[in-house]
Amino acid sequence: MIQFNVPGVGEYELEHLVMDVNGTLAVDGQLMGGVAAKISALRKSLTIHLLTADTHGKQAVIDQQLDLTAVRIASGGESTQKAEYVRKLGSEKVAAIGQGANDSEMLAAARLGICVMSIEGVAKETLLAADLIAPDTLSALELFERPLRIVASLRR
C-alpha cells in the first residue's frame, strides 16, 4: 500500500495500480525499456493489474516479460469495461495509468488517474479525465516511488 495526504484533497491509500498496455507500457506491441524493472519494484507496495485489448497480438510475450497476466478486454465498450474493472477493485484504492480514448473512464473512476504522453498520442478525453499528466510512462511509475511529487502537483 502507498499512503499520502494531499492538502485540500485528502488521504490516499492506494493498493492497486491498473494500467493499459498498448500505448502506455508498450509501443507497437513491444514493451518500453525500463518498464519491467519499474513494475517489478512497485509490486512490493501495489498489486499490479494490466488491461489490454491486445491490439498487436503480442500480449503473451509482454506477460512473460512482466511475470503478470493481463486481463483481455473484449472488443466493443472497452472504456466502460476498464472502468468497471477499477470499480470492482474498489475505486478509492486504485491508481490507473493510460493514454488512449478507451482509458478515459478508467482514469476517471480511479482515486488517482494518470495520463501519460505517448508516441501513439493522447486522447483528449483521457487527458481531461486524468488527475495528473506525466511526460512519459517511466515518470508516471516513478511517482509511486516518490509520492510527494503527487502531493506537490495535486495540493490545493
Strand order of the largest sheet: 7-6-3-8-9-10
Overall geometric form: globular
Q: Which whole number gives the mean pLDDT?
A: 96
Let me know the largest β-sheet: 6 strands, parallel
TL;DR of this structure?
With 156 residues, the chain is an alpha/beta fold. The chain has helices at 35-42, 59-66, 78-89, 104-109, 124-129, 137-145, 148-154, and strands at residues 2-6, 10-14, 16-20, 26-27, 30-31, 47-52, 71-72, 94-98, 112-116, 132-134.
Using brief descriptors, characterize the structure shown:
156 residues, alpha/beta, two-stranded antiparallel sheet, 7 helices
Topology (SSEs and partners):
Elements: E1 2-6, E2 10-14, E3 16-20, E4 26-27, E5 30-31, H1 35-42, E6 47-52, H2 59-66, E7 71-72, H3 78-89, E8 94-98, H4 104-109, E9 112-116, H5 124-129, E10 132-134, H6 137-145, H7 148-154
Parallel strand pairs: 3-6, 3-8, 6-7, 8-9, 9-10
Antiparallel strand pairs: 1-2, 4-5
